Amino acid sequence: MESPGLQLLAESAENGQLLLIGGYNPYLLFLAWLVACTACVATLNLLDRAANAEKTAARTIWRWIAVACLTIGIWAMHSICILAFDSPLEARYGVVIALGSLLIALIIVQTLDNTTAWRPNSRLLHQLFKYALCMLAAGGLLSTHLLIGNTLAGNSDAASNNWQPALVLAVITLLLIGSCISATIVDKKLQLKEHDLRRVNALLSQLDQARASLQQVAHYDPLTNLINRRGFNQLFAEKLIDCATRNTRLAVMFLDIDHFKRINDSLGHDAGDELLKTIATRIKLATRSHDDVVARFGGDEFCILFSLSQRDEAQGMAQRIMLKLKEPIELSGRQMVMTTSIGISVYPDDGTTSAELLKHADLALYQSKGSGRNNLNFFSPSLKTRASLELQIEEELRNALNEDKGLSLHYQPIFDLKSGRVAKLEALIRWQHPEHGLLGPDRFISIAEANGLIARLDHWVLRKACHDLAALSRLGWQHLGIAVNCSALNLVRVELADEIENALRTSGVAAHRLELEVTENALMCNLSSTSQLLRQIRALGVSLSIDDFGTGYSSLAYLKRLPLNTLKIDRTFIQDIPASSQDMEIVQAIILMAHTLHLQVVTEGVETIQQFEFLNQFGCDFIQGYLLSRPVPFEALPEILQQLDKRPVPAPDHATFVLTNQ
Questions:
Q1: N or C: which end of the chain has fewer CB within 10 A?
Q2: Predicted TM-score (pTM) of this structure
Q3: Are residues 186 and 51 in the same domain?
């Protein structure tokens, strides 16, 4: 008889019947089941590795190893079961049955492989399911061997010697299966380490990107993508070391865009940003090579660092930049033409440290802006001397304001040609400097404006002038008015109207006796806000006067819009009269225009009788100048006023001045 998977052969001498006598050793059967179960567990682990493998070749290799592992387990299980069978008959493998067991192994591998796709939320449940499946598979394999058919009687001896080969076979099989399990464990750890390394590399890459981003933010301007001040200083230090080593020269060029604030105020900050981008691109194009460093320090300030052999090279580059910026720029539907002021310092002629060279280039830039803008200047020692003097004056002026010491007002009379007497006074500030003596406003007003002291200075002049006018009123000059100059920077302060009202109330002076003098340029800086502030001041009863008319915009439009009372002709139109008939015609036209606009006319700088007679002849309302009196301190003012009130007015000689067209 043939049983599935195993053939037992015997011959009967008498009747041809085959008698099978024997049984299975339960301990060896359990060992066989344990081998099968271990093989299934190892196969499932191998399939897990195959499922988690990242490469296709690795997945294929792990699957074939799983097939081999399960096949070895099945064959070992069959062999142990044969050894567990106690019979006197000869037992051996059949080729067909062996190949069939390999097919069973493939089917089981495929079944187990499908179970790896099932991943419940509970990892413990998944593990229990795998082990239960392995136990069932091992039991199923074992049962295929035990289905032998009918049992025949026969004689057999005890097969005690089967234990040793069964145990050897089980140990070898378990070692092979254990090696497969160990391989999966090692491979899993290696894969986890590889994943960790990848995560570390990814984190390092992110750190590098973050570091690069921080480097970009820390050393580059986000708007123009140029190097910022910090990055510039770092490169500057490196280039200075290089220049010192190679004994070469280095130029530092400061650029400031002229009147850039007007673009922001009129077109908005977005348009200003677009303009800065265009300017940065043009400056970069005007440089010679990538070795030239172009940086934006903030606002409309740029700085260029470049090597050179002659100072003329710096001048040539500056001129190229100025020409490049003068090319029209399309901005918000308008054609804009920009100019720039430039200051240059050169290493080692003008300094040996970065701070020194930057400071000297800034002083040269300040000189360019002070000389009319759209200009370039090299640093010179005289600029440093001037800067030191200005710094000293600033400190001492601040102390003078804090201590109310050294400042005083001088007054120059303004003569009424119609009434023949002094009608008002112009208050002019003076400063008794401890080293430089008596200083006029031209020596320190610009310094006060540049350093934020002009508001305090104007306020001091206003209060002092109102106080002195009240004192003159008590001396009998109740009809006198007083004119006080107002800085352009002070006209943007909304507190100005309140300060004027407070000064009038404190001194007890009537508002109509105070006149505020402003220049044309001051009015045009921000006409809309300035107009509103002047209307508030005019509402107090204070008169308003345009100072130095003819030297600024001289626009009839703002003369009509602003609540003005008086127009003051600048001295430059008077000094050549009567020699210049052209100036005489200009003055006559200004007087006629002002009267047409219902404005009174004051002419300053009158120094000769001929000028006096000319202005009197053509209807000027007031005159002011050295012909009447120089500015005098308050103590000398009463005497001067008495002399002027008693002095007869010269009779005009109308035949003296006959205007001719030229």
A1: C
A2: 0.58
A3: yes
